[in-house]
Write a structure and sequence with these properties.
The chain is α/β, with parallel strands linked by helices. Helices cover 48% and strands 13% of the residues.
Length: 269
């Protein structure tokens, strides 16, 4: 395992709080807070990418809403507290009201002490449309959360594979390009199918087909996939399938706008 992926405790006391306004996200979080009585944040990959862009590239996006829209693959909503009666349908409804363009899978996370329970230090990010909270990891620095390992080789292999997904060069950062896990971490890993799916999605999301092809060639060379799987994941058909799935909601929204405009135009003229 790379020294970059050292096993450590997460220290929430070192969290940075950065003012970064986004009125749409703030309105959504405040609305869910009124329903739950608990603090609400967006978490997950898009927020992590926002933090890395600020910390590692030294760039703070002027249009936070546009940045998150471009990087969002899953809707991860954190309700911070011990509460059992959060209605996911209400959260879904509020999301569609305030953030109508972001129609992806909704994951509702309800937990007290979110940062302390994380498996990766770079996952220690949360955003409520007003402030961005994060651990200020430097480029090339990340750690596995110590409580999640407990001397389990299976858990370590799983986390290393997840770490490779989270830090893959396709995301635009080169500092982890030499940190691909050893072949053994891929073998008999229950997370391997998810890894393949996320690799193909990232190739489209970040426009990195060359790096994706290199990844698939490495898997084939090390007999982690066979020739038929290689052809499946590198074919134009598979790329088109992923593209349609990832953008179907956007297409529906655009078509709705076109139809609405056509109806208005018909009645006015």
């Amino acid at each position: 395992m790379s020294d970059m992926f050292e096993i450590k405790e997460i220290d929430e006391n070192s969290t940075v709080k950065l003012y970064l306004p986004c009125k749409e996200v703030k309105a959504f979080c405040r609305s869910v807070e009124r329903q739950t009585g608990k603090r609400v944040f967006l978490v997950g990959g898009a927020i992590r990418q926002l933090v890395r862009t600020i910390c590692w590239k030294g760039e703070t996006p002027e249009n936070v809403y546009g940045f998150l829209e471009a990087n969002l693959r899953d809707r991860d909503v954190l309700v911070e507290g011990e509460i059992s009666n959060v209605d996911k349908a209400i959260v879904e409804s509020l999301w569609r009201h305030y953030l109508p363009k972001w129609w992806t899978e909704l994951d509702l996370i309800i937990v007290e002490g979110y940062f302390e329970k994380l498996d990766w230090h770079s996952n220690a990010v949360k955003y409520n449309g007003e402030h961005l909270y994060y651990l200020p990891l430097k480029e090339g620095e990340d750690y596995i959360g110590k409580p999640k390992i407990q001397n389990s080789p299976e858990k370590l292999s799983y986390l290393l594979l997840r770490g490779w997904i989270n830090h893959h060069p396709m995301r635009g950062f080169s500092c982890f390009k030499e940190t691909r896990p050893e072949v053994e971490a891929f073998i008999d890993n229950f997370y391997f199918p998810v890894y393949l799916k996320k690799m193909s999605e990232m190739a489209l999301l970040y426009g990195q087909p060359e790096l994706f092809l290199q990844e698939m060639e490495w898997l084939l060379e090390n007999k982690l996939i066979d020739q038929s799987q290689f052809e499946y994941y590198t074919s134009n058909k598979q790329s088109s399938k992923n593209w349609v799935r990832m953008n179907s909601d956007t297409l529906i929204f655009v078509l709705f706008q076109i139809v609405t405009f056509a109806i208005i135009y018909f009645f006015l003229f």
